[in-house]
Amino acid sequence: MRKLKLSVLFALLCVCTAFGQQAKYVFFFIGDGMGINQVQGTELYLGEQAGKIGTTPLLFSQFPYISVATTYSATNGVTDSAAAGTALATGHKTQNGAIGVLPDLTTPVTSVAVWAQKAGSKVGIATSVSVDHATPAAFYAHEGSRGSAYAIGEDLISTGFDFYAGSDFLSPEAPDGKGNLYAAAKKSGYSIARGYQDYLKKAPASKKMILLQTEEASRKDNTAIPYAIDRKEGDLTLCEITRSAIDFLNKGNDGKGFFLMVEGGKIDWACHANDAATTFQEVIDFDNAIKIAYEFYKQHPDETLILVTADHETGGLALGNGPYQLNLKALENQKVSLSGFTAVMNQYRQEKRNISWEEVKKALEDNFGFWKSVKLTEEQEEQLKEVYEENCKNTVEMSASAYQTDDPIGVAACEIINEIALVDWASDGHSASYAPVYAIGAGAEAFQSRMDNTEIPVKIAKIAGYTVE
């Protein structure tokens, strides 16, 4: 009899342990372009701001389980966000440029978000860029080309997740003029909130939600919410997006939990522009969004998994460019992103035909701290003046990166402040570097050894009890 009681007790303990390890609430954070050096560089930058040589750790880098993942696609040693997003979402490799399909560009593959939906969990997909961008799209869309923005928007609506958030739709009007995504979303039962305050008003009575930035903000730029370094009062933020997603998915929860993917999309954009100061501020902003999820985790520690990773590294960021030292604190003198400085110069150009060197120097002093806080060599000043002579007295030749077209004076200023900070970039594209992986909570111990990015959604599904398809 005593043996029977012990056996029953042991069985109950096993069941309780297994239940305690299953993740009811899953947070999947993806820092687009956020390689290991983007994380380390941010922590060293924060350390220098605190007056020390060393790191001031971000929250997510202190999670108990840390690993790395390979990121190559089915066709390329260096992936793009579409193929990497598909791998992270579905567990399948595909061609660069493809969304939610196999390398044949036709056969659809479902994502961990769909698996969660079928398991009865509520699902949210959120980003700091457009809701139809490559990484978020990989969780709900099936298109041979990431450029099929309107079709991806249609997939977003038909997949029917509970919550979406981002800057806006890139192409809300159908190419043939016979469709509109806003109207289609409303017809399918979605409320569309424009900004955080509008979300707070509409959320209580809404069954499904698409949170976008204000129409005024989208008229200026519908491709993304502003960089953290450029943020103005009233701008939609990644923290507000994350807070709204948790609030909405947890509202009236029937006990089956939720799955939430949040992308810090503009880390990648800043890296494409080789803008170190803006990159580090975007990583800090991403960490602040993770802190909101961590507060939720502390209330449900046995039922919550938080996973943080990247789709790939962008720019080949090097921390150190020759001398055995860093001077990252110099970057705190940069007050705007490269694109923000371009806006400053565009305003000058609109106001007057000829811009004086003194006016340019004042703009550089105000926005990069040059001459006032950041000392320049004669060669660096001459470099800026040469770019001024070429582009302020004649026709300006703008400089294009993946997502920005920037003023050449700003590009030169970024190169110089990077040089002073003793950081460097290998390119303005992606690299094949490992993507870091950080995990805490239920089942987080599964993320300890080196893995491929395709293993991540399968591990999440096993931890959360979803059926892999």
Overall CATH class of the largest domain: Alpha Beta
Named at the architecture level, the CATH assignment of the largest domain is 3-Layer(aba) Sandwich
Query: How confident is the prediction overall: mean pLDDT?
Result: 94
Strand arrangement in the largest pleated sheet? 5-6-4-3-7-1-8-15-2-16
Total DSSP helices: 17
Beta content: 5-15%
Describe this structure in words.
This protein has helices at 2-21, 36-49, 81-90, 112-118, 134-137, 149-159, 181-187, 196-202, 215-220, 238-250, 266-272, 276-299, 338-351, 357-368, 378-392, 408-421, 455-464; strands at residues 25-31, 65-70, 122-127, 163-165, 190-194, 208-212, 258-264, 304-309, 313-314, 317-319, 399-400, 405-406, 423-425, 430-431, 435-441, 451-452. The protein has 469 residues and is an alpha/beta fold. The chain has 2 domains: 21-319 and 429-464, Alkaline Phosphatase, subunit A (3-Layer(aba) Sandwich), CATH 3.40.720.10; 328-421, no CATH class. Helix 3 packs parallel to helix 17 (455-464) and helix 10 runs parallel beside helix 12. The protein starts with a helix and ends in a 5-residue tail after the last helix. The model is unreliable at 1-20 (pLDDT under 50).
Please outline the helices and strands.
Elements: H1 2-21, E1 25-31, H2 36-49, E2 65-70, H3 81-90, H4 112-118, E3 122-127, H5 134-137, H6 149-159, E4 163-165, H7 181-187, E5 190-194, H8 196-202, E6 208-212, H9 215-220, H10 238-250, E7 258-264, H11 266-272, H12 276-299, E8 304-309, E9 313-314, E10 317-319, H13 338-351, H14 357-368, H15 378-392, E11 399-400, E12 405-406, H16 408-421, E13 423-425, E14 430-431, E15 435-441, E16 451-452, H17 455-464
Parallel strand pairs: 1-7, 1-8, 2-16, 3-4, 3-7, 4-6, 5-6
Antiparallel strand pairs: 2-15, 8-15, 9-14, 10-13, 11-12
Helix pairs in contact: 2-12, 3-17, 10-12, 11-12, 13-16, 15-16
